[in-house]
Design goal:
The chain is of the alpha/beta class. It has a domain of 234 residues: Rossmann fold (3-Layer(aba) Sandwich), CATH 3.40.50.10680. The chain has 13 helices and 15 strands. It has an eight-stranded parallel beta sheet, sandwiched between helices. A hairpin with a 2-residue loop joins strand 13 and strand 14. Helix 5 packs across helix 6. It is globular and about 50 Å long. It starts with 11 loop residues before the first strand and ends with a strand. This is Putative gluconeogenesis factor. It is found in: Cytoplasm. Keywords: Cytoplasm. It holds the Pfam family CofD. It comes from Liquorilactobacillus hordei DSM 19519.
Length: 339
Amino acid sequence: MTKHLLRKQRPNIVVIGGGTGLPVILKALRRKNADITAVVTVADDGGSSGIIRDYINVVPPGDIRNVLVALSDLPEIYKNIFQYRFDSKDQFFSGHAIGNLIIAALSEMNDSGIFNAVQELTAMMKVEGHVYPASNYPLVLNARFKDGSVTSGESEISAAGKTIDKVWVSRSNNEAPEAVPEVIDAIMDADQIVLGPGSLFTSILPNLMISNVGKAVCKTNAEVIYICNIMTQKGETEHFTDADHVRVLHQHLGMNFIDTVLVNTEPVPNDYMDQQKYDEYLYQVKHDFNGLRSLGCRVVSNNFLELRNHGVFHNGSQVVDELLGLTSRPLSWMDSELN
């Protein structure tokens, strides 16, 4: 497979994922001169998103809400209102973010699905870039574990405490999930496809398991970059190396499609993390650079670590500086490691 990047003054970057990692990268990209498209997972079934999804059967709004705010040019007061989460003891409103309710309302008003509703909201919120739900309809995430058992639902999968073998997505009406043409066009026209950071099995793979999305990511001429997680995750990637993350991605799509991997090499200080607050994160991901290169990946290693509020995060500015630097470097299939 030969790939090249079409050099432009404004690189066209598509970021695919969900969870808390995606907005970190998007906020940093928004401060740079990049043409941004966010493709957001629609398989979440936990928290406020899961409750709203169960009540009115709409695409879970939480990840979409956070991405809209990350790319919005509205004053902070408006974004804070959109993000406000009720702490009332009212049985319905407690725990719901105002933005989730607005997205759900627009979905009901727009009978053609969530995609057009989100496009209306991007205009209202003065979003810089594009926000595309990975599917126009809510999807169910399914998993088969190493012991052969199968379960459905993102929350149930994470809580099962078993080693995941494979995940896939389905619709409630048993139709094959597909992304709208705009999502596929964005992937095919991109200079860079960025996966993550985020939960491997529940934030990144649900997007790639949509058949036409996975095929487009494998077929595009864009450089496909995986931002490897800093920490392993309970119920998903316990004891994984960085090469194990990429190996799982390749196995799910049936080919080696990751071109470049961004890896944090800065150690997390002992006893820094609040293990009660961040109880899903276990150990720092171990490095296997030889394994990554054997999978056909260029390795970019650097200090991408940000320590904040006794939690471990990616430094969005540092990651984005590296991403934009890669748009000006030729993609070489020679083994290389940049420090």
